[in-house]
Write a structure and sequence with these properties.
By secondary structure, the chain is of the alpha+beta class. It has a domain at 2-120: 2-Layer Sandwich (Alpha-Beta Plaits), CATH 3.30.70.560. Helices cover 27% and strands 25% of the residues. The protein contains five helices and ten strands. The strands form three sheets. Strands 1, 2, 3, 4, 5 and 10 form a six-stranded antiparallel sheet that branches. A two-stranded antiparallel ribbon has the order 6-7. β8 (140-141) and β9 form a beta hairpin. α1 (15-26) packs antiparallel against α2 (64-77).
Length: 173
């Protein structure tokens, strides 16, 4: 059994619908879904705000490459088109594999060309860490420590003020 933390974001088209479709697309593997947050764009300011959510999922037989393939399939289903000139540009759906753990709770460490685990920039992103705390208040990001400590430190702490909870959007069921 593997557990995985996915970060989902959308800032083009029907943002809520894209997130909902991704959660539904993960099906029975979904354990927990965080609250939704509206966030400014990261890495490329010239685009609309995002809706972001964290999802904890499980699968008995999934390897890191399987989760990456699922993430990319969800993005394709939402009509995502990658612009090679705008790495952090707008998108209908972005699904990042943040962390993965074995059934005995050990973090999976991977440094492959297509997927690095844990995600190499997760510790810098308020839009990943804050939703994660909703579903795992005592979470640890392998190699970086307690998520609660990470959100209290710069640069994440400075970005938290710009995250806006969206209690009007519920992706649980």
């Amino acid at each position: 059994m593997t557990r995985v933390l996915l970060s989902l974001g959308s800032n083009l088209g029907e943002r809520e619908g894209h997130l909902r479709g991704a959660v539904e697309g993960l099906g029975e593997s979904v354990l927990l879904v965080s609250g939704v947050y509206e966030t400014p764009p990261w890495g490329d300011a010239d685009q609309p705000h995002y809706l972001n959510v964290a999802v904890l999922a499980v699968d008995a037989n999934a390897e890191p490459a399987d989760w990456l393939a699922r993430a990319q399939a969800l993005e394709r289903a939402a009509g995502r088109e990658r612009d090679p000139d705008r790495r952090f540009g707008p998108r209908t759906l972005d699904v990042d594999v943040i962390c993965m753990w074995t059934d005995d709770g050990q973090p999976v460490i991977a440094g492959e060309s297509e997927l690095t685990l844990p995600h190499p920039r997760a510790h810098l992103r308020a839009f990943v860490l804050r939703p994660w705390l909703d579903i795992q208040p005592y979470a640890q990001l392998p190699g970086h420590g307690w998520v609660l400590d990470l959100v209290k430190a710069e640069p994440v702490a400075g970005d938290l003020a710009e995250l806006r909870p969206r209690p009007d959007i519920d992706l649980n069921g």
